[in-house]
Amino acid sequence: MTNPTFTRTTRTANLGNGQERRDWILSAGRCAVHIIFIGEARMTEQPDPTSRVWGGFVFGWHSQAPNGEGDKPHTNDCPHVEGGVCFFEGHTSRAEDLAAAWVAGGFNDEVIWAAAEQEMRERFIEPIDFQELMIRDLGDLGPDTL
Ligand SMILES: [Zn+2]
């Protein structure tokens, strides 16, 4: 469980009016970390679609089972988790900080993936490892204790 396979997906969508949406989705099958940024075209005399002001939007996660108190049912047809049934929660303040780091890093996607992988490990992987460790330790005490 310490080395699950993560699948990286990126999407770019033109929202019109010079707005662009970027999605980064790091999926581990039963759960996914999802980061969304929105870029606004700079207001210049000559509209320049390649020059955008980027802001955070959502830094969140999809999970087959609720992962925290704020998790809400997302949809029964979520494309980001196996089986499609999903709970979702996200934060905008963390997305703002990450968008700033991404821009400061020269739009380096590795900045995004590193944050997504850290979130995946802290939120989904390490708690499971901890549970497995507890079960193994209890198991070492002998079958009668379980
Ligand atoms: Zn979902």
Describe the structure.
- Helices cover 31% and strands 36% of the residues.
- Helix 1 (92-104) packs across helix 2 (109-140).
- It has two helices and six strands; from the N terminus they run ββββββαα.
- It has one domain (7-145).
- It has helices spanning 92-104, 109-140, and strands at 7-16, 19-27, 31-41, 52-63, 72-75, 86-91.
- By secondary structure, it is an alpha+beta fold.
- The chain has a six-stranded antiparallel beta sheet.
- The chain binds zinc ion (ZN).
- Zinc ion is lined by residues 62, 74-75, 78, 80, 86, 88.
Averaged pLDDT, please?
84
Order of strands across the main sheet: 1-2-3-4-6-5
Alpha-beta classification: alpha+beta
Radius of gyration: 19 Å
Shape: elongated
Number of domains: 1
Instruction: Characterize the main sheet.
Output: 6 strands, antiparallel
Bound molecules: zinc ion
Spans of at least 5 consecutive residues with low confidence:
none
Our estimate of the beta-strand percent is 35-45%
Query: How many β strands by DSSP?
Result: 6
Notable traits:
146 residues, 6-stranded antiparallel sheet, alpha+beta, 31% helix, binds zinc ion, 6 strands, 36% strand
